[in-house]
Automatic annotation (TrEMBL), chains A, B:
It comes from Tricholomella constricta. PANTHER family: HISTIDINE--TRNA LIGASE, HISTIDYL-TRNA SYNTHETASE. CDD domains: HisRS-like_core. GO terms for molecular function: ATP binding; histidine-tRNA ligase activity; RNA binding. GO terms for cellular component: cytosol; mitochondrion. Residues 99-485 form the Aminoacyl-transfer RNA synthetases class-II family profile domain. This is histidine--tRNA ligase. Belongs to the class-II aminoacyl-tRNA synthetase family.
Length: 619, 619
């Protein structure tokens, strides 16, 4: 009934718990197969990556040396198998062997396990809460669009668009970002919606080379906020920058900077330096690489590849090395050559207004006016920005995501592991480990006053004036945010679900009584669970409640229940020597509570009243 | 820069406000075109549907007769144009005419406007809250899967799978439901996750013929909850049915029934009646049509199409006409022929356990044991169920969604309209209008004990025993839910965003002061907005705050502010003659509040303290 994928390799080890068995079987399988079929080097490479992750995992968990050695041996075997396969084993035949299904997600995609989703939901909640705090309304557009809507918007990157197969009907493609569907929507709504603050949270798709551990994937979540309409200069732009700073602060991503520049200033600089008009966009793209390449490389691209005069390139180099705050603006305003340029003058004026507003928003200290920021997309027409977080994807994240390989083999990541490092005391700042500091762009955006107009013009009747709608927006890369927040979340020992009570029976099962109590608690808004067994041992029930770190065990016993009582035992966890362990409560029989008073009793506890998903359950 | 879609028709009227101009232009355009190019009948048909919606809209809004007549005339013109086009106008030439982009979403998909999304978020919040109340954890899988993961799971419906284009690499397809990706995930996790309660909320895709007004689309949102693992009989099944009833009740979808049947009982009935083993699944499919077709039709399918003996069909007919509660179970238990069948006996025993549990869960009154329920999918192995809501997609919804045509032309639906009908007083039950009652399945599910094992078997090495993992789950059709909840939401006059305060300046703009106050309120958790203008008139600011129905206008004026005060004016809306109107407060100058006490003052108001997204702001 199943169609099976072709794969040369017969062994997929699903469980990291049995590396030894896998290792030995792989070799024998390989030995057998080299005679009959050509092993696929890609499949072996895949196994190698999986085995590496498993090996690292075992080491990290401090597994027995024997297990670690076995895993290492298996890795060696695989690497030899790869060498053999690349050498080109002869023959091509599936023989009588049944082809096996590869249990994996598509390349560049992954599952998010419950523990990870609990963290992601926490992140989404903060972002959406900020979006609505700033007056935003939610918009939802389809995951795929008609291909002609997306075409002509992404320049060279258009090759990264995922197309749907032509199954008769429209040509469709998966959305590449939220900006173009939003502009399409705004053009469709037309005059009915000339002013809006809209947010979108949803997945977008790019056929790029994935780097899973850095949150760079083919399917990824973006959260966008856009303000449309003709307003007074820079007020919506300042709202967005303030919103971005608020979100970054609330997400606790650590130190961050928002680089800001203005397309008009940049264009003015190019003109003043003498860049021919037709080269401005391509020279701008070269400047955009300054965050990754040194100036000599960028200059080389300008002169050698793009044929710019070296003297002109040097002039540009003098300008784009500048970054700073309002004092840089003053300096540029004192540059007579620049202020004589209409575009630059215009941009400088707007930056002045922006700085004044950002001061009122109290976010000026987060902003870096950076003349080297150019941003790739063609459609920006005003300010552009990019948020950079000092600590992006530290090793902790890479380890936690080791199973989510770049090829999408993704066995789901495990539940948060016990942290080896105690949480810093409240209010105490943890020291930054310099070796773990990276730099990554986590959000970006800018003003695009022409995009909606482009749609209107393309859709308008000949000779009809196309309606323009100025817009400014920001996109937050939620997977990058997750890459930064998740290791902290694991380290803090966060829970992975929000069940607050677990009903446990002593004695003869009491299934009906358990169900009734569970339902009463749920109806009262207390998230409650129980063990789906008729007559479970109380140890099994407590174990289940502890696995989920449920703060309240509600114990029912026949006699007590008959007398109208239940017993509540609070369960707590704490860090001991860096390990999260349950606080021992031997001899604690819990508190006897009248059954009909149970809901009220629970609700007045500080544990329940003060609960939030972002809170560590600890002493 | 844009690639433009081919379209024969030169006029797309984006704005429903100008039907007259469109009408006249269409005819002249048509006249011109018949000589030079062949008009596309599909494009005209599309325009006809749009124009129909517009015409209905105008009538509904009680527009001037002249406008209505013009729209009607335009409709007639289009219909004549269609007849002409179908008659086959000669020639095929685009001439010098510029091809125009069609601004629309893909067929069977639509945008959800902010007002609609506010309602959808409310629905999602309730569903997710119930999922976690029942101990569920969230899982997220990619929107597309490797094609071989989906293949062989959907029988005939596999033709409805959306494939991605082969762009080099894997064969991919959009997910068709959440069940198969979940089973793939559970198979991948293997022994690490033998017991779980997992929920998923996400979009799934089917290349079906859309009926947009009924919430039947090509892209639609499903909310799934699944329990995996070996538990005692029927306890997880009862949990799921209780969960389903809780959700339906909290969503306030109106009267509903959950039809329940058991595959083993059904199979037993077929065996007892004498259906040959190889015909059981196809006869079961025929039975599944009993909710749409009368018995004579179904019998005809069994005998004429599927070659079943008429006497056997009649015996089946005797059984499947039964529906009821525990008394039906008693009756079947007294049927010696049936209880002698092993499969039936097994199923009857399980139904007995289920009824006892459902009684403890207090949902027995919502359940209908219905022997005609068969469910299409092959993989169900135990109980199966389907939730039916009495009132599905009443006319109000169809009207509200008139612009979201089945072809995806979807200008986004308008913000909730003023209701013509006053809301019933609290606690008073509204009379059911029989003419508006429909029947629709809004959720469905069942037990599938073999699916994870299928994946394991397909992925396992030869001769290796495949690990089985019993599962039971439910899928809620969120677009069907929306189709039912949305018209009620509109009728109640619900708000479409949650901004709570709007800062208004009197006098000289006070932009900096407005920004500072707005930020203070936002930081205090009060969702606040202001007009992005330097020196807006106070009328414009009040109008903006009223458009969003913001409950508090915070007024700042130079002198008062200098003295340390602001003024708070509460804004309320009420229904007068079925129209939602702002409560007049002439002469009300608002309340003077110390600026530094403003946050505390607002937070102690009942309006703010009692606010929730599902609450109507009214007197």
């Amino acid at each position: 009934m199943l169609l099976l994928a072709r794969t040369a390799f017969r062994l997929i080890h699903r469980s990291p718990l049995h590396p030894t068995r896998s290792a030995s079987l792989i070799l024998s399988a390989h030995t057998r197969r080299t005679h009959t079929m050509s092993p696929d080097p890609d499949a072996i490479q895949l196994e190698i990556e999986q085995q590496k992750a498993r090996f690292n995992d075992l080491r990290k968990q401090g597994a027995a040396q024997e297990l670690v050695d076995e895993a290492k041996k298996s890795l060696g075997d695989l690497q030899r198998a790869l060498a053999l396969a690349k050498g080109g084993a002869a023959g091509k035949d599936a023989g009588k062997k049944r082809e096996r299904l590869m249990l994996k997600t598509a390349k560049g995609t992954r599952d998010y396990s419950p523990a990870e989703m609990y963290c992601r939901e926490h992140i989404e909640r903060i972002v959406k809460d900020c979006f609505t705090a700033y007056g935003g309304s939610c918009l939802d557009t389809p995951v795929f669009e008609r291909k002609d809507i997306l075409q002509g918007k992404y320049g060279e990157d258009a090759k990264l668009i995922f197309d749907l197969m032509d199954q008769g009907g429209e040509q469709l493609a998966l959305r590449y970002d939220h900006t173009v569907p939003l502009a399409r929507y705004l053009a469709m709504v037309g005059a009915n919606n000339t002013h809006s603050k809209l947010w979108q949270v949803g997945k977008v798709y790019r056929r790029d080379n994935p780097v899973m551990s850095k949150g760079r994937m083919r399917e990824f979540l973006q959260a966008d906020f856009d303000i449309s309409g003709t307003w007074d200069p820079m007020i919506p732009d300042a709202e967005l920058l303030s919103l971005l700073c608020t979100i970054m602060t609330k997400l606790d991503v650590g130190e961050f900077t928002v680089k800001v520049n203005h397309r008009k200033i940049l264009d003015g600089i190019f003109e003043v330096c003498g860049v021919p008009a037709e080269k401005i966009r391509s020279i701008s793209s070269a400047v955009d690489k300054l965050d990754k390449l040194p100036w000599v490389e960028v200059k080389k691209e300008m002169t050698d590849e793009k044929g710019l005069d070296a003297a002109i390139a040097d002039k540009i180099g003098e300008y784009v090395k500048h970054k700073g705050g309002p004092e840089l603006l003053e300096k540029l305003n004192a540059d007579a050559a620049l202020t004589a340029n209409k575009s630059a003058k215009n941009g400088l004026n707007e930056m002045g207004i922006l700085f004044t507003l950002l001061n009122a928003y109290k976010v000026l200290d987060k902003i870096s006016f950076d003349l080297s920021l150019a941003r790739g997309l063609d459609y920006y027409t005003g300010i552009i920005y990019e948020a950079i977080v000092e600590a992006s994807a530290p090793p902790g994240f890479t380890e936690a995501n080791a199973l989510a390989a770049a090829d999408g083999t993704a066995a789901p990541a495990p539940a948060p592991k016990k942290s080896k490092k105690p949480k810093a005391a409240d209010g105490e700042e943890e020291e930054v480990d310099e070796s773990q500091v990276g730099v990554g762009s986590i959000a970006a955006g800018g003003r695009y006053d022409g995009l909606v107009g482009m749609f209107n013009a393309a859709a308008a009747a000949e000779g009809k004036k196309a309606h323009e709608l100025p817009c400014v927006g920001v996109s937050i890369g939620m997977d990058r945010v997750f890459a930064i927040v998740w290791p902290k979340w694991v380290e803090k020992g966060m829970r992975s679900k929000e069940t607050m009570a677990y009903v446990v029976s002593m004695g003869d099962g009491l299934l009906k009584e358990r169900v009734q109590l569970v339902q009463e608690l749920r109806e009262a808004g207390i998230k409650t669970d129980f063990l789906a067994k008729n007559k479970p041992k109380h140890q099994a029930q407590f174990a289940a409640s502890e696995k989920d770190e449920v703060p309240f065990a509600i114990i029912i016993a026949p006699e007590e229940l008959a007398a109208g009582f239940v017993r509540v035992k609070e369960q707590k966890w704490q860090f001991v020597d860096g390990e999260k362990v349950k606080v021992k409560t031997e001899g604690d029989k819990g508190t006897q509570v009248r059954r009909e008073e149970l809901v009220g009793w629970l609700k007045q506890t500080t544990t329940l009243a003060g609960w939030s998903s972002g809170k560590l359950v600890e002493n």
